[in-house]
């Protein structure tokens, strides 16, 4: 019996020794290989290789595998402490399938690893331009088409262009269109009786297709435009709704005529039995007429109050001279207060214990405009949640099974911050978060308005954290950007990768100096948006990482400018157009009558469209933009949210995954799992769940919109309409125009 017990004891000792040895050697921490998580046909796959430690140079072979068959590979030699990149050219003929990246190390270090990759069929962007978006029967459809790679270099191979009518009949087909510039052009004269409706242009390039619609219709160009001017928003305390209707010819002169205005709500009370529209008749003087309506009349239409209800105003203006009638529409919305607070969804959802947390708030009028004049200060209150320690000395956030009401927390309020609201309304607030904090709840107050924002702690088994901050506003291609690197422990060196347009564009290992910012050279390939993932490896093998999104200006290497010699010209006068671009550049010119754009637009290629296409190559796992779309503030052209946006996540694994890369390594890339809790009467274990509430109008605990609506302040004045123009005497007519071309310029030229 004693012998059996001795054997059992010896077995336990051996198992403990074996387990300790296994744990001590579980993470060799010798290499980290980072790759974009997707392959695209015809595009390179840049794979970053970092050898952490090796006695001799290491030969690394990266192989792209499809359906268990090797497609292509690349080999390079790397030394410890010197990151590098292997470029794998994905074949243009690649098709959908199961892809993976296999890495093999030999020489000074032997390893083998493999990770799955996604397949994305899009390898280039196709753009189609027409001279107009709508055509009459008998007119000629003019089009240009080009395809560009993510680096904006044109595809110079053959293209196929097809045109289908509204009945889906193929009307025309051009095969193997090809030009040295990469831009192909074609014309299609329409018959006198073509099928009316939406037609389609289909362009096929190297297996990829792009479609664009245009309309064919019997139309008359609108001679004037009707505009309804309303307040950008209304308050429920307002007594009257005031607006105006204006009508101007496309050349700027005021229209004389009469008008009819119809006011209606977007919803009506089921108890309301009166008319659903309020009709007013107007007479335009100098192209304008004002109207008013009592808010009390609108309130009768909806008995539950006008808060957040919309008023829709439709106007019809009839020109006195010709009897032509055209329409205009506008709407406004009722609110209880003229101001609002927004917590952008780009505000970080997690914090690094022991480091500074930075959040964002936007204070504005209900229509998004900045508040002009005296502004109250913004008040930020923070409450920190700490996990209690249960009797066995282990914090309640440790994964384990137990009964009862655990986990339990204690709470502590931080000092209130009172911040000035700048002219643009954007406020960033900081907080040095204590090391033991597990959650921070922010209460943001502006006058009587309150919003809530809660963030959770970033997870690390060693409680080691890294933070990267962009210090340079609006980085520009061709210059350097400064980044600040902070950590909760002393760090000598870090490695960073920068990803843009779906690929790794920069890899470097740098020394961390708390007194000096990290200098990064910004290149055009990083525009318009980039992501940085930065990390170091602890002695126990844990990878400590952070990541960041930031915008970059300067996506276009070729700077093009266009000028006219006159800002205004009379019919029959000549206007000179001058343009400049890099030598050898192809330039396509288009000028169209403004009246056509009043009917339909969308035929042109814009900078916003090109930049949006570059964004489609991003390998991000989820959107990181401030208001659910592109990072645009207001809606002004080319205005952007320049603040750097941390990439969301709760652990090091999320930092890489949400950046859009895969990691092949023998280090510990920590992935947090929530504690498993048994709660009576449910016996099966389930993860502790704390919902992430919406960033606007909720405290994250399901309490919904927070804070009572305060008394409405004075509403801003209505945006002034265009000043009246004095009518001028008409000049004597010398010529009668019989041909009115709608497309004035459609030229293809090469800059010498």
TrEMBL record:
Transmembrane segments: none annotated. Residues 1-26 form the signal peptide. The keyword Zinc does not apply. GO terms for molecular function: endopeptidase inhibitor activity. It comes from the Eukaryota. Residues 711-720 have a biased composition (Pro residues). Residues 466-599 form the Alpha-2-macroglobulin bait region domain. Gene3D superfamilies: 2.60.40.1930, 2.60.40.1940, 2.60.40.2950, 6.20.50.160, Immunoglobulins. InterPro entries: A2M/Complement_sys (IPR050473), A2M_N_BRD (IPR011625), Ig-like_fold (IPR013783), MG2 (IPR002890), MG3 (IPR041555). Residues 689-729 are annotated as: Disordered. Keywords: Glycoprotein, Signal, Thioester bond. PANTHER family: CD109 ANTIGEN, MACROGLOBULIN / COMPLEMENT. This is CD109 antigen-like isoform X1. The lineage of its organism: Eukaryota, Metazoa, Spiralia, Lophotrochozoa, Brachiopoda. The gene is LOC106153301.
């Amino acid at each position: 019996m004693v012998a059996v017990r001795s054997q059992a004891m010896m077995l336990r000792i051996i198992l403990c020794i074996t387990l300790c040895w296994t744990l001590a050697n579980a993470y060799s921490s010798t290499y980290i290989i980072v790759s974009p998580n997707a392959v695209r046909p015809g595009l390179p796959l840049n794979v970053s290789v970092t050898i952490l430690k090796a006695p001799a140079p290491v030969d690394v072979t990266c192989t792209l595998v499809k359906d268990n068959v090797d497609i292509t590979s690349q080999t390079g030699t790397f030394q410890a402490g010197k990151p590098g990149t292997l470029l794998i050219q994905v074949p243009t003929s690649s098709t959908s399938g199961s892809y993976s990246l296999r890495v093999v190390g030999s020489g000074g270090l032997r390893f083998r690893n493999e990770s799955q990759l996604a397949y994305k069929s899009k390898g280039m962007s196709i753009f189609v331009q027409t001279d107009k978006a709508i055509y009459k029967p008998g007119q000629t459809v003019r089009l240009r088409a080009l395809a560009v790679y993510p680096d904006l270099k044109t595809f110079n191979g053959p293209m196929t262009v097809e045109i289908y009518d509204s009945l889906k009949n193929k009307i025309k087909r051009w095969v193997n269109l090809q030009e040295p510039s990469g831009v192909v052009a074609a014309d299609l004269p329409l018959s006198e009786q073509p099928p009316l409706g939406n037609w389609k242009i289909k362009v096929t390039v190297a297996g990829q297709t792009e479609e664009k619609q245009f309309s064919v219709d019997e139309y008359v160009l609108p001679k004037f435009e009707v505009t309804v001017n309303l307040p950008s928003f209304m308050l429920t305390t307002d007594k009257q709704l005031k607006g105006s209707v204006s009508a101007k010819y496309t050349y700027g002169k005021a229209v004389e005529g009469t008008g009819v205005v119809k006011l209606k709500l977007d919803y009506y009370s089921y108890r309301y039995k009166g008319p659903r529209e309020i009709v007013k008749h107007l007479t335009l003087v100098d192209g304008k007429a004002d109207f008013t309506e009592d808010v009390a009349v609108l309130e009768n239409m909806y008995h539950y109050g006008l808060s957040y209800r919309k008023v829709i105003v439709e106007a019809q203006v009839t020109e006195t001279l010709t009897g032509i009638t055209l329409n205009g529409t506008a709407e406004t919305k009722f609110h209880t207060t003229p101001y609002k607070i927004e917590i952008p969804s780009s505000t970080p959802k997690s914090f690094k214990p022991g480091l500074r947390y930075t959040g964002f708030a936007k204070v504005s009028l209900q229509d998004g405009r900045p508040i002009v004049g005296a502004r109250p200060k913004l008040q930020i209150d923070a409450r920190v949640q700490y996990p209690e320690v249960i009797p066995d000395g282990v914090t309640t956030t440790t994964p384990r099974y137990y009964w009862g009401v655990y986990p339990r927390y204690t709470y502590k309020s931080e000092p209130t911050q009172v911040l000035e609201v700048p002219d643009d309304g954007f406020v960033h607030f900081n907080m040095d978060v204590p090391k033991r904090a597990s959650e921070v709840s922010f209460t943001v107050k502006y006058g009587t308005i309150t919003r809530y924002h809660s963030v959770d702690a970033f997870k690390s088994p060693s409680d080691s954290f890294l933070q990267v901050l962009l210090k340079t506003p609006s980085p520009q291609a061709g210059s350097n950007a400064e980044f600040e690197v902070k950590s909760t422990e002393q760090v000598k060196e870090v490695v960073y990768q920068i990803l843009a347009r779906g690929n790794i564009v920069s890899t470097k290992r740098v020394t961390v100096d708390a007194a000096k910012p990290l200098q990064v050279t910004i290149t055009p390939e990083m525009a318009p948006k980039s992501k940085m993932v930065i990390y170091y490896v602890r002695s126990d093998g844990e990878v400590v990482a952070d990541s960041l999104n930031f915008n970059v200006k300067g996506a276009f290497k070729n700077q093009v400018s266009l000028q006219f010699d006159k800002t205004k010209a009379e019919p029959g006068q000549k206007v000179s157009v001058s343009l400049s671009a890099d030598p050898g550049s192809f330039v396509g010119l288009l000028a169209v009558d403004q009246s056509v754009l009043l009917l339909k637009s969308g035929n042109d290629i814009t900078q916003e469209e090109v930049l949006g296409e570059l964004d489609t190559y991003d390998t991000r796992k989820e959107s990181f933009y401030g208001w659910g779309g592109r990072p645009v503030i207001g809606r002004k052209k080319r205005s952007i949210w320049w603040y750097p946006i941390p990439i969301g996540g709760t652990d090091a694994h999320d930092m890489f995954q949400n950046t859009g890369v895969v990691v092949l390594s023998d280090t510990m890339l920590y992935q947090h799992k929530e504690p498993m809790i048994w709660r009576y009467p449910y016996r099966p274990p389930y993860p502790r769940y704390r919902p992430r509430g919406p960033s606007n109008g909720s405290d994250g605990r399901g309490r919904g919109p927070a804070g009572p609506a305060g008394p409405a302040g004075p509403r801003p004045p209505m945006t002034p309409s265009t000043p009246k123009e004095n009518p001028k005497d008409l000049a004597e007519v010398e010529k009668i125009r019989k041909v009115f071309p709608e497309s004035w310029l459609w030229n293809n030229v090469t800059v010498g």
